[in-house]
Structures are given as structure tokens and as C-alpha cells.
Records
---
Amino acid sequence: MKPKLFLILVLFSAMMMSCMQEKKIEYPVTAKGDQVDDYFGTTVADPYRWLEDDNSAETAEWVEAQNKITADYLSAIPFRNDLKNRLETIWNYPKYGVPFKKGDRYFYFKNDGLQNQSVLYMQDSLESDAEVLLDPNNLSEDGTIALANLSPSNDGRLLAYSISRGGSDWNEIVVMDIASKNMLPDTVKWVKFSGISWFNDGFFYSAYEAPAQGQALSGANQYHKVFYHKLGTAQSEDIIIFQDKLNPQRNFYAYLTEDERFLFISESQSTSGNALYVKDMSVQHADFIKLAEGFENDYSAIDHLDGKILVVTNDGAPLQRAVLIDPTNPAPDQWTVLIPESKNVLQSVSLVGNLILAQYLEDASTKAYFYDYSGMMMKEMEMPALGTLSGFSGEKGDQLAFFGFTSFTFPSSVYKYDLNTHTYDLYTNSEVDFDPEGYVTEQIFYTSKDGTKIPMFIVYKKGLKKNGKNPVLLYGYGGFNVSLTPSFSIARLPFLENGGIYATVNLRGGGEYGEAWHKAGTKLNKQNVFDDFIGAAEFLIGEKYTSPKKIAILGGSNGGLLVGACMTQRPELFKVAIPIVGVLDMLRYQNFTIGWAWADDYGRSDDDKEMFQYLLGYSPLHNIKEGTHYPATLAITADHDDRVVPAHTFKFMAELQSKHQGNNPVLVRIETKAGHGAGKPTSKMIEESADMYSFIMYNLGMKPTF
């Protein structure tokens, strides 16, 4: 190409980008209703209440109009297609899950590269050829029917698995004979928030009654029950094992010890805190015994050791400990402490071989130790790098186990662990087109508004200059005791390759430092979470990593609330905001599907006047101000999200488009046949990533090359 012609094309491209940025978007006019609610004497208008009806023609028309202007905007970004092509290229490599054993067979998931859903394989031994057991890609042409859960029977003869349609939390359980791969006639519907636990010739599961017509994706979920399904019978004959007729807002989860001797029921009314029950299945007509009262603490039964129940709990130990409980004498003063509380959070415990593996979080990265059955620490497990251990898979008595490991620049890999020698070898590695040696990961600690030290991981290319001009993608969650640990993402590689900085913050509200850290970001302390996130941006600016015009913020679900709250509190601090499936209407979240279960973290607008006023003070929907210049916003939701219903995003974006000033685009992307995120097919993930990252990079002024 001649130099003059090349210069003309560059100038033309720059001119087109400038025109896009300067042109004000004409948003569809969203009709306003006259709905007004009274909260303790304070009236609050809710003009977009009609958008809560996910079945109405008016809502469908609004969605279509919004998706059109969003698609028009995204398709005009000059490098959007090149970014998509790059994503397809780097996405296309084999991805392996951690193998697990049932009976004499091994099972594992594999995705060849761009398959919409990962395929379940099985092997008779690690040396034998693998064969396809279940390919979810055959369940639908577009990959929108996904596996939600699966459970081989302990003898490895049968496979029960549940499927989700279009990303919904509603599941349907079916059963396969593994040897013949023939489907049994058994089908169980309206399953939600459930395991599949085999016992004798059937399994335990949790479900709700069938929802009313038109209410499947938005109606409140109430009266959860545990059932037992016997193979060969109709679902109508399933026996109710556990329920609570007096408290409709309780959830129940059933699971068994590895030898099927003890059945546990975990009873919860929120996302943290539970009661724990046990039943000795070896004793005929035995009753359930309550091992632990709810709902102030967490109790997770792991298995049993000679009839004593091994439980991980934060009862009396905010950073958690492992105790043994005698089911015939379960009083707390009779518990035996097996692994005491330490300085780090005890994240999980499992029985592998003839040992106990305890995994800890130390400043948001994994540490792991082996203990014997008496509680004596035998050996620290060496990690491949600073990162996250996942899916340690092994059974009692086995001498071989598998685990997964990942970090920000360490693609997910699977290792085989010898429990005799405590050595491990790489079993399957990643072949992604990415050179981790060209990048730096650092962990820093900065001071939040109230003086609390907050950890943050920062990832960037080697040779970065701290000149205040680098684009930053800042990610956080900050809720429900969820810990953010180092993890690898294919989707963010092009951002890093083009000079972007990725930062993830371990905000209060999470579980990185135990229950006190969690509680410090809940209810009347929720503002701490937003202050922590704002403080991260201010730190990055102060240390010359970046500037306000170069920061994008990203979060999903509770993280979508985080983004919504921060962009409305400090709109001048961020250039781009991406709230994904966010909880954005804090006055009404509890009225939809499982929203009532989040009240322990959020509080409710009808609890009392103080709680209402606090929620109103930060609710993203209710804090959009007329005439404010808000960041360039791409809100993302999906039509089948029955966890955080799309009405949150619909109402928030209608209000934002009505009041926002300036030329920053404020758009909403509404995916079809998708839900809260689980089971999303690869094709949709690539499309969404291309849209999201092209929006981010374009509005941060990046000029990427692919």
C-alpha cells in the first residue's frame, strides 16, 4: 500500500470514530406510568413498573427497539469484527475438566475448542481410549440446552443429569444407563437449587411446585421440598422427604456421605447461614437429627469418620474450622475440634486417599495442607504458582487424585496427584495462543475510605509505563461471602495484548478474610463495598497507572449492583461502566424468583424505616440524577435470567436514558435464550465478549490491532 493512501485511510478511520463519539444517540422513548409506592411515609415513584412484565407485548417491543440501537452502535465500531475473529482464534483450543471416578470408570469433560457445550467422556481406565458418554450439543441446534448438574451412581452403572433450557435456573432431571447409553423413562421436572444424590435404586433432589402460567421466569420461588425418586416410577409418586409448611422462604439441599450411610439436609433462608440435619440411613425408620441450629453460622458436612460427622463451620471460628460431631450427641460443647481455626480462611475440606485435604485462602490465593484423621498436619501441598486450586478430585482409599489450577496468566491446567509420594505431574495442559511470560501480575494493598487495607491484583504487559494514560478494566463483586481468586479468561486477552491493565479487587462483602470481612459489606455496611471499589480507582489514578478517562468498571449480578452504585455515586471517576445481570432496583429485588434469599446481605425495603432509607440512598435505579454526564454504559442482561430478572436492567436503563446528558452512549444488550450466565453456549459467549470488549476499548480511546 502506498504511504499516502495508508495515511488517508488512517485519517478517514479516525474521522469516522470521532463522528461516532460526537453524535448523540436518539434513544427510544420509554413510556412512564403513574405507579407510586409508600415506604414508611415516603413516596417513591416507579414509572417503569410495566417493564417488570416479561410476558407483555409492550415489554417485547421495548426490548426489540433497545437491541436495535445497540446493535447499530456496536456494528459501527471499526474493529469489532476483527476482535471477534481474534476471540474465535484464541478460543479454539481443547479445554479439559478435572477427571473424577465413580465405580471403576473415570469421567471428564472436554471441549474441542469452539463447541457450544463441553462433552462428557468416560474411560474404563486411564490407559484405555476415551469414549463420548453424553454430548449436550446434540440436545439443541444452537447450544442453548445445557447440562446443569450430573451424578453417576456410586457403582458407575447409571448417570442422572439435569438440563437447563435457555439459561434458566429451572432444571429437568433424566437418567441414562451408562453401559448401553440408553435413556431410562424417568423424568423429573421443576427442579431448582438442587443436587442429585443417589441412594439404593433412586435419588434425592429438591424442587418447587410447578409455577403458575406465565410466572416461571419471574414469580417468587416458595415452598422448596426434598423428594426421593425411585427409578421406574412417575414423578407424581415421588416421596417428600423434607419440607417446611410454615416457612415458605426456606431452601433445602440433600446430599449423602460417600458410602450412602448418612443423609444430610442443609436448610437455608439466605445465601449464608444454614441449619444442618442428618439421618442415619443404616437404621430403619430413623428420624432426622438436627446437628446445628440456623441461621447465624455456616455448617457444611463433608463425610463421616467412624460414625462421627466431619463438619466445616464458622460457628465459634470466623475463619472456619473442621469439627467432628457425634450425631447421637450433637451439642456444640461435645464437638471435637479436628482442624482448628488458623490465621487464614479455611475454604474447604475433602477426604482423599486416607488423608484430609484442607484448602485455605491466604490473601485471596490458595494454600493447601494434608492432615491425617487425627487432625495432625502431615504436609503442605506445593502449588504450581500463585493462583487458584480447583476441583481436587479423589475418593477415600484411592491413591490417585486430580486437580485443576489457574491464575491470571496461567491458563487452566489439570494435574495428576500421587497420594503416596505427594508428587504431581501435568495431565492436560492448555494450548491457548498466549505467552504468559510477557505479562506481570502484582498484588497491592491500598487504603479504603475508612482506613481498611484492601487487596487488589493488577495484570499488565511487561514494560508498562506509569504515565496516567493506560486503559484499565476494574472488576469486583463484593458480596455473599464470595471470594475472588486468580483466574484465567480468554475473553480479556485481547484487552491485555493491546496494552490494557486488568485489575480485580477483593472488596469487603466477599469471603477472602472470613465472616467479619463478609459482614463488613452487608446491610447497613453495604456502602463500604462501593467505597472500596471507588478507592481502587483512586489508587490507580494516584499511582499513575491511569486516569478517569481511561477506566472501565465491570461486574455481574451483585457485581452489577456494584457497578450501578459506583457509576451513579461517582460518574466523573469512570469512563465506561458495564453492569451485567445487575441487581439495580434495591427496593423491589425481593419480590422476584429467589430474590428474597438475598436479604441477609442487603436487608429489605419493608424491614424498617432505617433499612428502607439506606437502600434508597444507594439503589442504582433511584439515584440517577437529571442532567448528569454518566459514563459510557453497556448494560447486559438476558431474557431467561430467572435469578436476577431482566426488569432490574430494563428499568435502570430506561431511567438512565431519560436523564443522562452528554454524548457517552448508554445502551442495553439483551441476550435471547440465555439466563444468568450458567450454560451459555460458546457462540453466545464469543458474541457477547466481542460486543462488550469492543465497546470498552472503543470508548476508552484504544486503537487495537489483532
---
Amino acid sequence: MKKLLNIVIITIVIFVMPACSESWLEETPPHLITNETLYTNLSGFESGLNGLYSLVREEREGNSSDGSNNLRNDMAMVGTDNCVPNAALAIGRLVLNWQSQNVSTDTNVKSDFLWLYKIINTANTIINQAETRTDVDWNGTGTEEENKNRVIAEAKALRAWAYRHLTFRWGDVPLSLEESLGSNIKTDWLRTPVAEIRNQMKSDWLFAEKHLSMEPPVRGKVSKGAVQHYLAELYLTIGKPDSALLYADKVINTPEYKLIIERYGVKSSQPGVVFMDMFYDGNSNREEGNTEALWVWQWEYNVVGGGGSIMRRWHSGSYLHTLISINKVNPLQFTVDRGGRGLGRCAPTKWAIELYEPKDDRGSNFAIRKYYILQNAVENAPAPADKLPPGYNYGDTIKLSWAKDLSGTSNSGRNDWPFVRKFDSVIPTNLQESWQYNDQVYLRLAETYLLKAEAQFKLGNSTDAANTINIIRRRANASEISASNVSIDFILDERSRELIGEEHRRYTLLRTGKWLERVQAYNHRGGQTATARDTLFPIPQVVIDANLTEKMPQNPGF
């Protein structure tokens, strides 16, 4: 059984005095969990951190607060140059028509804004309790001071992570560093300039870097390498490529962090490519052989606190209906190899699919599904055999189609469109399950190399940047490049080739000043409706309305 972060729901219960009982008079009743009773020892702080991580994982789990299955990270991925909606759902509806749908009353804009502040408040509570209380028993593995600093470091790292989302999505937002208490309720929040918030993010991550280890004590926790990676990105964002290079090199030069350059693990004896091995269930974690991993998120089926991701639900194609137009036969069965049931709610653009050289493993059918092979019952087991349309035989190829681009602003999508396979995973006993329970690489070393190349390019070292990029390209069997090939657009192209479906693509394009240009050039499904104002989302109207004693300004154009 995997070591998991248990989900701990912490609630402050208001008790009504029961008749004929004096148990409510106990100063610390055993059934009452409050900040005062929980944060008294290291175990209590670990429980608080587990609750914080459970909130963070909602990025890939769905919007649990309103009971929907909307994917929170869509705001960071869909509506870019390499990813468009394939169904008008959640943020997909918004990015199909930016001008009419990117509004302050949008449910998803509101929900994600409040989710991120829930993370921040939870982190603030842990930090405040750890820093101010003098009655905590910090005994555990390591010294008391080390344990205390590690707890604070994790909370600060995740607080900065939340502000990273907020600043890229909304720009200036309120900066909150205090635990929310009944005594300090605010109705006069001010929007803090992005530069000031990013200074706080830097401070939080620098503290975390000092007190976190390369190998977290429990799977799923943030590592020193992940924090250094985020610092490298932050320094690029604020125009300090020299510092970005320093922190990228800190990660890259850590001996235990290494790119995967050979087949390994659960499918190493099967046909495949080196690039994809780290995405298979059983291969994602460092102790399973994934030396490239900086941060791996944990899920597990049918375990209390195990949770589940819906990345496949959104990114994998709805292939059950691929051949519905051929004699009304739907031949393809859900199988383990095909990753189970996908709904295809978002899709790569035609530009992104065609960005690869023919021999580039990252564009192969192992990485981006472009065709299927009709299989018999033995090959499909435990699923039944594929159904054969007239004129077809087992072993025949069923090709997906991307000759005509996804375009327009209609609600309809395509079932025969290629899709990213990084999230192919399914429980064999339930092949139609929408959720997936495999551990997933959230942040990895290859992206750090690409941050390094960007820093080198901005420092005028195109030769060094080309050499860094070639390290990534060699792993994929792509041709090597020279200094003359390097530009910010080439780096963005390479990031798409390597990181499609993983990186927060919107943030990368905003950070480099390329979002609007590239959306209008390569995104033909809603991209043409975007304008400069849509580089930010509007502050949710409920947030503005709740700020009763101070007017909170809206973003320009809304």
C-alpha cells in the first residue's frame, strides 16, 4: 500500500449545551477539533498540512466545492495556442467567446478565486500557529527546530504556489498573510500590486528552499527542487534571468535529479518510447525509478483520503464514438491500454499536433493518440473484442483526423480528434470510470531545463541555450538545433512539444508577453474573440460586493 497524504477535514464545531450534562464544561473536550486543540504537537500540524495538500490537489481533482466535475487547472491551460475546448463546459465555454463570457459573474472564475484564498488562509493558519505558539511539542524525526521550520516551509511554499495562480490569472489581488479569525474580519481589502505579491512569493520560497529536503518525508509533499524550480520561473517573470539561471542550475546540478534517458519500469519490455515511461502508473514516483520527478501528486483507489484525478476525463478523447459515422458502428472498446473512458473536453490544436518532426518521440502515437489498432478479445482483455465494421479486420488501423482544424465558437466538439496520452490510466475492474487513481508527475526536471534555456537566451547566450535545449531533444530523438534557431518563439514551441498537457501554458505565454499574439495565430476555436483585456480574468463580482467598506476596483475592460 502506498504511503498517502490522509485527507483531514478540520472543522470548528459550535456546541449547544445538552440538557443534564456538564461535559461541555471541559476545557479541551476530546471530540472538539479547533486550532487550539489541533496545533499542539507535530502530529497535529501534519494533519493540518494534509488538509492543505488536499486543497492543492483540487487543481486536478475537480471543483468539489460546488459539486461539479469542472477541472480547476483549465483556467491555466485551455484557451491558449496549444489547447482548446472540445466541449462548451466550464472554462471551455468562456474561452470560446472571450468577449461575451469572460465576465465577473462567471461561476468558475468565482470558484477558483475563492479556492485559492481557501488555500492561502489554511496556509496562514498553519504558519501563524507554528510561529506564535509556545506550547507545541515538536518532537519527531529531526530536531524540534527542524520540524517546526519544515512545517512552516511547506505551508509557505504552498501559499506562494496559490499566489502564483492568482497573480497570473487576476493581476493585483489582496495580499493576506494573517490567519482569519472572528476578531479580524475585513471588509476593506485592497488590491496589492503584483510586484509586491511576487516579493512575498520570493520570500516564502526562499524560506522553503532553506528548510525543505530534496526527498520529501512523505510522497506527494513539495520538495526543495520544486521550490527552486518555481524560484527560477519567478525570476524570469520579474526580469532577472541571471537569478533564474542560478536557481535552474541548482535543480539541474542536484545529482539525484536526472532526466529519464532509458526505458524503465512497468512497461519497459513493451513497445514504447523513453519519454512516456514516467507517466505510467507504477513509474511516476522517485522510488519507482522516476529520477526526473520534482513533485508527484498522489491518488489511490478505494482508500479513505486517496481521492482521484479527472485529467483523463478532460484530456483523453471520447473514442467510443470515433467511427459512429461508418455504418453506424462504434468499434472501439474501453481498454486498459487505451486508458479507459475519456470525454475529450479539451484538445490540442492542429498547430500543436503538427509541431513535431516525424521522428520526435513526443509526437508519436505513444504520446499523442493519432490512431488505434482494432483488437480481438485476447488483446483487449479484460474488455471484449472491438466490433468490426463491414470491410474491417482485426489488426486494421483506425486513424483519427486533424486535417481540418478545430475552429469556431459552437458548443459541439469532435470525437475523432487526437489527444495527449499522458493521463491514460484506468482501474481494470471499471473501464468506464471517469476518475483515475494513478500518481501523477506534477513538476519535472525537463521543464527546469527549458527555464534554464530561456534564461540563457535572455542573457544573450544563444549557443548555451541551444545546448540546453538539445539535451531535451536528444531524449526525444528530435534533431539537434544550433544557436541560430533559438528565439523566444522557438523556446515556446519546444515547451509545447515537451510539456503539452502538463505546464500551465497560459502563465508561460503571459510571462513571455506572447499570449494574445499566439492565441490569435494558432487558436481557431475561440481565439479570435480574445483581446488585450483578456490577459486577465475579472475579479469575481461576489468578491467586489463583499468588500463593503472599501471599493475594490475591477480589472480594466470589465
---
Amino acid sequence: MAVDNTSDSNNKASAISTTDIKKSATGLASMKYEEMHFVDSAKPVWNYSLFSEDDINNFQNGTHYSAYNKFGNKQLEVLKTAGTYFAVWAPNATYVTVIGHFNNWNKTSHALFVRLDKSGIWEGFIPGVQEGEAYKYHIHGFNGALVDKGDPYAHYWEKRPYTASITRNVDYEWTDEKWMKKRAAHNALTSAWSVYEVHLASWMRPSKYDEESYNTYEQITERLVPYVKEMGFTHVELMPVMEHPFDGSWGYQGTGYYAPTSRFGSPQDFAAMVDAFHHAGIGVILDWVPSHFPYDSHGLYMFDGTHTYEYADRRKGFHPDWNSYIFNYKRGEVKSFLISNARFWFEKFHIDGIRVDAVSSMLRLDYSRKEGEWEPNEFGGNGNLEAIAFIKDLNETIYRDFPDVQTIAEESTDWPGISRPTFAGGIGFGMKWMMGWMHDTLNYFKRDQFARPHHQDQITFSMAYFNDENFMLPISHDEVVHGKSPMIYKMPGDEWQKFANLRLLYTYMYTHPGAKLLFMGSEFGQTKEWDYKGELQWELLSHTPHRLLQHCVKDLNLLYSKEPALHEKQFEVGGFEWVDLNHRNECVIVYRRIGLDRKDDVIVFLNMLPEPRMDFEVTVKGKRNWEEVFNSDATKYYGTGDVYNPKVRTEIVSKEDGTLKLILNLPPLAGVVLR
């Protein structure tokens, strides 16, 4: 069993000059106090280490799950002298120095010591370097390569276009004890999961026309937290906040995996935002990208002059879709880097979940590759066995150490067992995005309304496999960019029909089994595609249709959270049953959502055509008294308000088996929910 040794108690300070380095491979551990001395002022680096033998073994074996406590920069005091300890993994380097403002970017004055255990770790303590110093590692690498790299483990970076790391800790005085004690229930699979997906820069800007204007984490907190709370979302998902050089990557091409982006403030400012969400009763999910990274010169690519973090074989190491590079999941040090990184965000920033990006591309060697562009694994298959092992280890580690959180996979294929435990042969995620549902649903709703009777299977097919995985239904940022049009303009018909169709789609989404995710702006009918350079069209809320659509989504969030039948068994086959599929020509479907207590059951009616259905009849079993608790055609949602059910009529069919007939009116292009 691997030991994750995070204690520093057994580490001893060491301070010897470069001329004395041969005296001891372990620094001052074998030297008497009177032998210690400062190096000459030209090269004031002390040979100091935070690593134990267990640390090295675990790091190399891919089982060091808190490497951030060892690598990077650490402000501390050695021999009553304040300074900063630096440690970097550069196994093919022949010489590594720390360069920064503190030494006028001198590439020779502050050389680190390489450990003699062949771990490839370079380290040293530089007196006088304190928090807030910009720095890089100057590396003499493979074949004479000379590179200046940011620190892979740094917690803070310069704001782009500058690319240096900054010495900084992530200490924060948390006040979310109440949340942390109860979050196991909040984040349980039996609880409501209504997720609001947000791109922090473009949700709202100080100047909507200036892409260089950003709200700070504090300003975002003041605006976003109460909005998410008011709208009734249970969780917020932040598109990648890890430091990244190019805004146009939306954060998915990262260079600072251990640092909240400095665009909006400090790590402590980011922590305060998470703290505020927790005080509001809202969970925080982060997008996390262990699938690929960019080739920026200051980043991970060719870190020490050769393929340190990425596969050397381009058939495995290069992403043709994203022009980026793939982590070498076989290498223990890379596994330690990545799994430690996931743990870092849970431990240091109290996050409630990670949504892992592009899982399909990690699992499959042939992902986006033509024949001849990939090589089968040792068993002749297309699975990347190393990536599969890494993902399983990741999920096992997260759920072992943080059992009250969730990991969520963006996985778009039929790979089995994505959200099944590893001990049951699965990959180990808590949830998986239901991409098939999303594509089928959008394709169905885009159709001419009167063609829908011929395509009913497209809207009902997901019910045949909804319990194969723990599915999250995603209407994400990917569906409202690159010419796909915003949600409101995917809908057919005139203005009223477009809004009615979108309310109907959301009603279907919120009453379908599974967790929910909605991208920002879709809740009020944004009329433009999402643009990362701008901000949401908040001015649309001055128009009645948009403001009332927003109100509809708010009430759907409340309905989903309030009605136990809509979430208690959302991932179980017993949480859903068809009531009526025999009205294909009328384009009406009826289903029941089932709670742990059958008295909590709800019945959902969806009328997919712009025609009302008066005195519509269905036969059900159960209680005799039913009431309408939601009607997407209500005037408060910009509906007609003409067709509703102040009283649902019932007729007993059979007292013996509890069968009765429900008779109600269905509005056009609307969903009705009975309790």
C-alpha cells in the first residue's frame, strides 16, 4: 500500500555552499551545527529539502497524492532566516536556476541543487525571497535546450500577457463549517442537482464592450452568488479557473494547474468566493482538464527540453482537434502531478465536485484519429490502458479522501460503466454527462412542430437507457457557440412559439430522470451566441418574454428541489415509468416520476404541438386526488394562461386494482405537472 507522507516533521534544514556539496548527499542531516554556514552572496542558495524517502518513492510510483505540499514555492523560515524554498521536477535537466525580479532575471546566480537519488528533482532555499516575487525556472535541458519555464505547482501567476509565476501561498481562514458538515446530504446522488454553468469573465463585465475589463472575484461574488441563490440552482459549475494564457481557450488550455487565474484576483479572493457560495447553500463544481495542455513556451510542453509531461509518440501525445498535447499517463510523476492537482482543489478550496473534460479522448487511442494514426494497445484494443488506470485511481482517491463530493465525466461515447464503482468494474465517476439525450432533444425541438409525430422515438429513446449511468442532462456552453445558435433560436415558430417551445424543453429536462445543467444566459433566452469577449445580454430582462422565461426556469428549479419524486430516485430504474405513449399523432407523452414514498409521485404531461388538448384522458393507478403544480403555459411565464386545470377530474375505473381515469386540459406547446 502506498504511503502519502505529507508530514514535514522529519525534514531537516541544510545549508552548504556549492563547494561543500560533496560532503553530504543529504545536506545538513549529517553535519554538525557549527559546520553550517551561508553560501557566498553571489550564489545564496541553501541545499534544503522537504522530501522524505517515502515522498520520492510515491512521487515516482504515481501514488503521491499531495505533491503540492512539496513542490513549487514555499515561504518559510530556515535557521531563523525568512525566504522561499523552490522544488521542480526536471529529470532531463543538467542545470536549473531560479530567475526573477529579485535577481534581475540573472540566469546563473541562483542555481538549485539536484537530488542525488536520481529523482530528477531540483530544489533549494533562497533567503530573502518573500511572497509576491515573480519568477521562472531557467533550465538547461536535453540536447542543450535552454528554456525558461513557469512553475507547474505555482499557486499564483502574472496576468497575461506576462507569464511568470509568483511566490504565493493559498492559506485562507474558512468560515463554511456549517456547509462542510452538511454537504454530504447536499451533494448526494439522491438530492437535487441543478447546475448553473458559468464563464466568470463573460457572465458580467464592468464594461460590456471591453474584453479587457474584468470584475474581481469579490465583485463577481457580490453579483453572482445572490443571483444563483435567487434562481434556485443548487450548484454552480465554473468553466476552468486554472491559470491559462489565452482567453479564447475559455480556460481549457491551461498552464497553471495549481493556481486560480489572476485575472480576477488572488487565490484568497477565489477562496472567499467559494466560501460565499457555501454560505448561500450552493455547491461549487470546477471544470478540470487532465486530458491535454497547450504548447506555450512557459508551460508544461517540452518542460526540460524533452517530453517530460507528454507522451513522446505523437500518436498518443498530440491532440489533432485542439492542437495540444496529451499527458503521459504511464509516467508515475505525471500521475502524481494530476491526482495531487485534483485533490488540491478539494483540500485547499473546499470545492464540491470536478467535471472532468474530454474523458472520451483520454480513454480511446483512436479518438479523432484515422486508421494508421493510432496504435492498438497490447491486447489489440483501442483503450488507453494507462489513462484508464489513471482515471480509476483518480476517482478512488477522491472518493476515499472526500466522500461527500462528486466527480463528473464529460464522456460522449457508449463506453460502459463510466459512473459505476471501480470495484464493480466501472471507471468510478459519480456522474456522466448524457450527451445522447442532449443531441436527440435538441434535434427533436429544432424540427418543424407538425413533423414531430413522426419522430416521437427521438424524444422517448433516452428512457430506455437512462439508468445505465448516473446521468447529468447538459445544456452547456458547447451548444450555443460556433454557429449552433442560442437556445431560443433553435426553437421553431413565431416569437410566442419559440418561447413556448423553450419552456416546454426545459420542463421536459427538469422532469426527466437525472441531474441538470444549464449554461448561463439560456435561463432567460439569450438571443446571441455566447461570446467570451463580451457579457450576457442582461438588457433582455427589460423585455417581458425574457424576464418571464427566467421566472419559469426559477420555478422549475424550485419544483425539482421541492418534489422528492423528481430527485430521490433520479438514477434508479424504479424512479420512472411510462403512463401513456399511445398518442403519437397528437404528440402527447405522459410519464410518472416516483419517489421513495409513493404519495410523493408526480405525473408529467408534455404536449409537443401548438394545439390545445381539451379533456385529455389517461388511465393511472394510485391516489384519486391530483392537483396541477406546474403549467409552463401560465401567464406568469409568458404563456396564454387559457388552458389550465384548477381541478383535475377523476373517474374510478376499478376499485379492486386502484385504477382511475384522469381528465385534464393540456395547453399548446406546454408541460403540465400533477401531484
---
Amino acid sequence: MCSDRNSIPGMHHETGCAIRRPAVNTVIGCSNRCEASLAVRLTWCRTLCLALLLSMVGCVSAPRAVQPPQPSYALDAGRQSKLGRIGTQALAAALAEESAFHLLPAGREALAARLALVAGAERSIDLQYYILRADSSGMGLMAALWQAAERGVRVRLLLDDWGARPDDATLQRLAAHSHIEVRLFNPLVHPRSAALSLLLDFERTQQRMHNKLLLADSQAAIVGGRNIGDEYFSRHHEFEFGDVDVLTFGPVVPQMAAAFDLYWNDALSLSLLSDPVALKSPTQPAEPVTELWSAAHGSDWARRLAAGELRFFSGRATAVHDKPGKLDPERPSEDSRLGREIASAMGAVERELLIVSPYFVPGDGGVAQLRELAKRGVRVTVVTNTLAATDVPAVHAGYARYRLELLKAGLALYELRPDAAQRERGRNERNERNERTGSSRLSLHAKLMVADRSSAFIGSMNIDPRSQRLNTENGVVVASPALAAELVDGVQRALVNDAWRVHEEGEGLRWTGVQDGKLVTLDHDPGAGWWLRLQASLLAWLPIEDLL
């Protein structure tokens, strides 16, 4: 099962740290490692691409029908619209200029929230995703978008061209509707052939749009770490990504809409032409949407949203995002780093910093910054995946080389265990027979940072070189002690039974956690067999950290 990371790592042209201020710049994780020259890495990666290409000889894709886009902009349905009235209700306890936020830690609730916004929209729906899988969740959501378009709602769908998504024919049939437009961000040079695209234009191809955002009527938005796919919504029988999104209303939503327009109208976004002989719909609309509502317990969730029964937190918020020019070498002046915006919005850390990142590769610079925070008395806690839980062993190998340094610096380090899936699903969601449901394996996918239990970042950015230098990312920073405390308390509750505490013993590592109801200590990566541990050890020797 693949996550939303690129399957072939990319390159970058920078060294050093993107953020210099001694505040929450540690959340970015700067890397100063230069074990291999750029030329060596480029040769290595191109050799890999060529090998992949040769293995695909004979697979030729038809030319893709794309065209330069016509500009369009967000449509606001106003406060008197259905979602506007719900937003007014959610903002009842908020002060002026504050926004309202409802946390979405459970997968099925996160799916229900998206369906509710799509169903409630009256003027516009905008979606921006790295992955939109052609599984039951993805196809069902597209059917819901078709139904919204049938009501006269304008739909704009912006997808990265690398991430898993429906094929061009399916998207063209969707775009055949007069109220739906589909655009691909940074299209591959060779459609559906990543290997050939990398070979022909390596540096551009490996830079991707990693953003996740859904907007409805410019009144409501969902932002966070989830893509669109069964594994993100607790609907995959074997694998699940543990994640967090937020549903938001208020002044921050227009900021997100402006960011979407920036990407939508960028030169790197090309419109996918509709199929002139398209079927009426990419799927039969009624059945998949009905099934999706049922599976997500969506009808009850939508009722609670409309009735004002959901818990909302309020606080001043800032929508943060990289500029699309980050991926364009011809526009270096437009290069905007998300980390700088996060540092500016969150301010200096004084007492406590929580970092949750499924892919955590801090680099020498990041370790030095975290060490400095610890010296100043800041309690720093990092939560990431175990080797057994991660879906990208190469990234875990990059992280593993820093574990001992981080522990010696005084950080608290936790690794999520893959068998947490059943317990997590059992806590949050039960079927009609009150039996536990869930997949057999859980992998952390949430990207959170909380400073001093007063401000929090929720978004798409991992703490690794790829997020810092190669992908565009987005998210929201919220100044809300109540929301920040809820996030910290939720993480701490999960750590008791669902994570291993990593600690040092001499020059080695030990993992302590609850197993079969007893507190145990292990001297190797928990749950990982010898072969997986050997792979990680071998990957750690490769000079590819800046590509992770």
C-alpha cells in the first residue's frame, strides 16, 4: 500500500535550512548532509529511471488532451446560504476575526464531512488533492460531485499528475459536465509514464503538488493530511492511515479560497479536455453516493452538523501554503516556503513543542535546532512511525540515523505501532452490531505541530527534505489554547497503548511499551522482522537523504 509520497525520490538544488529563526523553525527539519554530490545523485536516479523505462518498453500512452486554462475564481454563496447559516451557528461563540474548527480524527467522520459539504454546496465546490483514488471512496465522491453539478453547482477539481488518480478517460467523462472542470498540476511529460517523464525532464517531474483542500461555497473548508481513498477513511480492510483534518468556517476560509485560486490559475495547471463522446456520468451516481453515506454514517453526521451538535473550537487562524512557483525553476523569486509562514504564525516556543510527522527526517540542522530548544528548557516530543508501521522504509532509514542524537539532546521520541489499527477503530467507530471493525495495520499519516498548548499547525507537510524543498504543501495555523490542548491530550492518550517509547541505553536503543497487557522493553525495532531490519540498514548507507 502506497502513501502520498512519490514512489521515486526527487532532487533539489538547495542545502542548508529554509528557516533561521529560533522559534518553531524546528518543525521544518533542515538537512545539511552532503555525502554525495548533486551530479552523483542525479546519475544514480537517472540510472534507476532508465532501468524502469526499459522494463516498460512497449507501453505507449495515447497523447493527452490538455489545454492552457482560462482564469476563474472562487464563488461565495454568502452567509444566507445553507453552509453560511451553519457557519454562523458554528461561529456563535467566536470573537471577531476568529474562525471555528471541528477536528476530524476518525476516518469515517472525515468522509462524512466531505460528503456533507458537497451535498450542501449551492454555488461552488473546489478540490485540491495529491491523490484521488479510483476506489469506492474516490468514485463515490466523484459521483457526488456530478450530482452537485446537476444542481448547477460549479465544480473545480485540481489534481497532481503524479499521485494515484482515476485515468484520463474517467476524468474526461467527469469534465464533460458543463459545470465541472478538471485541471492537472505540473503534468507529466509522458502521460501515465512516470519513468519516461523522469528521464525526459527529471527535475520538474519529481516536484509535486502535495496540498489537500476541499472548499464549498467559500463558506466552509476541510484541510489536513488526508487524500481521497479508502485507506484514509477507515474503509480499507487491510491497511489504514491514521490522520487528522479540520472542518472550518469563518475568516480563514476566504484565505484558503485565494490560495486555491493561486494554484488553479497558475501556468503549471492545465485543463484536461472533456471527452466529446462522454457518458452521462463517470459512475452511476445514486448507488455509490448512497453506499458511501451509509458506510460513513454520513446522514447522522450531517444532521448533527446542521443541528449545531458538533464541538467547535474558535481562534484566530492563518491559512499557510507554498506558492506554486516553488516548483518552477524559472520563477525562483516566487519561491515561498511554508515553514516561514508557520514560524511567523506560531511564534517562538517557550515551554512545550509536539511534532507529529509520519515521515521525520530532521537533518543535522533540525537536530541542532531541537537540541537548542531542549537546552532552553522546552519539552520536545516527536511522534512518528515504527519501521513496522511505515509504508516507506527508505524514509525510516533516513530518520533512524538521527534517533540516538535526538535522544541525547533530551527529546521524547515515540513510534506508532502498526497493530494500533484495531484499537483505534474500536475506540472511534463501531458497526451496527457494536463489534469492532477495522484494518489489520495502521500507519501514522497525520501532520501536526503544537506549540505551548496555545497554537497548532494542521496540514499536508511532513518533516523531511521532500516537503521542505520539492513538494508544495498547505495547512492552517490556529491560535486556540482549547484546540491545541485537545490535540496534545488526544496524542498523549494514544501514546499509552499505541506507541513505543524509544530511549537510549549506553550507545544503543531500547523500545518500551505495552504488549499483551504488560510493560515490556525490546532491543530491536518492534514488529519488524530481520529482513525488514536488514533492508532499512542497507538503505541507510545510500546517499539519498536529500531525496527523501
